[in-house]
Specification:
Layout: H1 4-37, E1 47-52, H2 57-67, E2 72-74, E3 88-93, H3 97-102, H4 107-124, E4 128-132, H5 141-150, E5 156-160, H6 168-175, E6 180-183, H7 190-197
Parallel strand pairs: 1-2, 1-3, 3-4, 4-5, 5-6
Length: 198
């Protein structure tokens, strides 16, 4: 007769095995996703980080890039002329009304600036990584306009899964054939960046 203690240990063991297996599958799926869209790594000689919408997340992106020890230049209001000598561009998208006021800008001028940066990047064949870290609540009409501008002009998209509950970002990236990776939290941002710049 199976004792209750033995049964409990068996169940606990099965839970541990399942948890390990599930974690391995998730990790394997993430790595596969990351490696399949990176045809070749991007030079990290001088990465320019800028913001589309003057969001606070741009500073988070800069912190993660710094922690990854990637050579970068942080210019929240980067212009096309700033691309000289740049090996890659990271655009953090998210509209902040307060941020725009502090920079004396508006949505129209911000879209014009980002469009010019993307056009110059295209001319120079400079890789562009679009990052959106906001959740569903940050997906304002203004943010969506900036995403609709930035994603098609980018080579890669890294976004929070929480910000894609309506599949807006999935559909946008697929429509423009932009490889996308969706992360669960901010701690996961380092993985796709490491894959791109490894």
């Amino acid at each position: 007769m199976i004792r209750l203690k033995d049964a409990a240990l068996f169940v606990l063991g099965m839970v541990c095995v399942f948890a390990f297996y599930y974690g391995w599958l998730v990790e394997e799926e993430t790595q596969t996703t990351l490696t399949t869209f990176v045809a070749e790594t991007i030079p990290d000689d001088r990465i320019m980080i800028t913001s589309a919408g003057q969001n606070i997340e741009a500073y988070i992106v800069q912190d993660v890039v710094n922690e990854s020890r990637l050579n970068n230049w942080f210019i929240p209001e980067a212009r096309a002329a700033d691309l000289e000598g740049i090996s890659a561009i990271i655009i953090s998208v998210g509209y902040s009304e307060l941020g725009m006021e502090l920079h004396n800008g508006d949505l129209t001028s911000e879209k014009e600036r980002i469009a010019a940066v993307l056009a110059e990047a295209g001319e120079r064949k400079t890789p562009v990584i679009c990052i959106y870290l906001g959740g569903a609540e940050r997906r304002s009409a203004e943010t969506d306009e900036l995403l609709e501008l930035a994603v098609p002009g980018s080579d890669y998209l890294i976004a929070s899964a929480a910000g894609d509950e309506d599949r807006f970002l999935t559909d946008l990236s697929e429509a423009h054939q932009v490889p996308a990776v969706f992360i669960q939290d901010l701690q996961d941002l380092e993985k796709p960046l490491a894959s791109l710049f490894r």
